[in-house]
Design a protein that fits this description.
By secondary structure, the chain is an alpha/beta fold. The protein has one domain: YqgF/RNase H-like domain (Nucleotidyltransferase, domain 5). The chain is built from four helices and six strands, in the order E-E-E-E-H-E-H-E-H-H. Strands 4-3-2-1-5-6 form a six-stranded mixed β-sheet, sandwiched between helices. Strand 1 (about 5-10) and strand 2 form a beta hairpin. The longest helix has 17 residues, at about 70-85. The chain is globular, with a radius of gyration of 14 Å.
Length: about 150
Amino acid sequence: MSCAFGFDVGSKLVGVAVGNRLTATARALSTVAMRDGEPDWTALDALRAQWQPDTLVVGLPLALDGAEQPASRLARRFAERLRARYRTPVALVDERHSSQEAARRFAGARAAGLKRRRDAARIDAVAAAVILERWLADAPPAPDSSMPPTPP
């Protein structure tokens, strides 16, 4: 299977999603803690070993007008660290409005029976799935080592 990971990077948590490049589908996988700007590398290493993704996709938070913002630097730094650590192609994807879409999906899941408070942390993983789906919709047929953001 040709697999990709999607990431929604935050200051406290990183949402992780896994996607299938052949079917262009993605699903929420997990969240990983962030401390002092560094993710829990042990947790990410374990997920990578289990799924063996050939591409990593990081959401790039931009302002509504497309300008970079402080969170953009955190996402770019995370993407660079992923690339250096795993020597795997990394793509940045404009993540504007992904949180709203994730919240909508999460609300639907709650209506379908998710009720526990701890399930709320999964919204970050759902946002990562939204980001990954955006990339999968326009993904190149083979992994690409470039890392420019996808235009809005």
